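Dear all,

This email documents one entry for the complex benchmark we are building for the journal club exercise. For each entry we list the sequence lines for every component of the assembly. Then comes the predicted three-dimensional structure of the complex as a token string, followed by one or two observations. Please use this as the template for your own entries, and keep the labels exactly as they appear.
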Amino acid sequence: MQLNIVDYPQAVVISVQEARLDAHNSPELKTAILQQFDTDKTNLIVDLNEVRFIDSSGLGVLVSGFKNASARNGVLLLSSMQPQVKSMFELTRLHRVFDIYATSDEALLSLNNATP
Amino acid sequence: MPEKIHINIKVPNETCYLGLIGKIGEDLAHTLTRSTVNREVLGYELNTVLTEAMANVIFHANQGDPTRSIEIALAVEGNRIIIKIYDEGREFEAANRALAAACTPDDLSERGRGIFIIRSLMDSVTYRRIDGKHVLEMVKTFH
């Protein structure tokens, strides 16, 4: 799986460079997310701009990351979601769980604003 | 003349074929040019249910065994799309119970959304024993 990982002061942005996020490749995203937690990075932004298709495994990995980040007093935000992918979040009602931003820059800005 | 298309596929029990099978479902929807159905949406739905159903077979019925294979039958008959996925796994009763109990998954559960998604996108979903094999049949009517 191709991932582009950039470490900003507010958060680590993980951009998924794949058209599909499914049961075949989502374990690799899970590993990448866990590696961030292992290095004490607790604010993550997963950018889905390149992802056109997501299945329940992909959704499950993002939920897992969300729960792990919350347990560490961090956040996992999502950005740049294509309409078809967003429809899967709506179908499974996960759009009520995640904070979803139009771009990763907006997600980063939200963390700036949240800083006391 | 009503549509009549039958496609039979057999692939190894491996997740690397999920994309291929999903794409075939998507392409099938795009052949329905005589229908007024939104082919983009229908194609995405077929891609989704094929991916979910195949992943269930790979991990559960076939227990991740790469020496096994999966048979998939796609059909368009009139205004119905019929998808059958065959497995020879031993978990028939457990799978049937899971199918019957499919409901909205708990928001924060990491697993268990696949069957919910399939049931949400298809008109009927059944899991039966036929000739010593198990078959998951998913039907969708389009206009």
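Observations: Chain A has one domain: 3-114. The first helix of chain A runs from residue 26 to 38.
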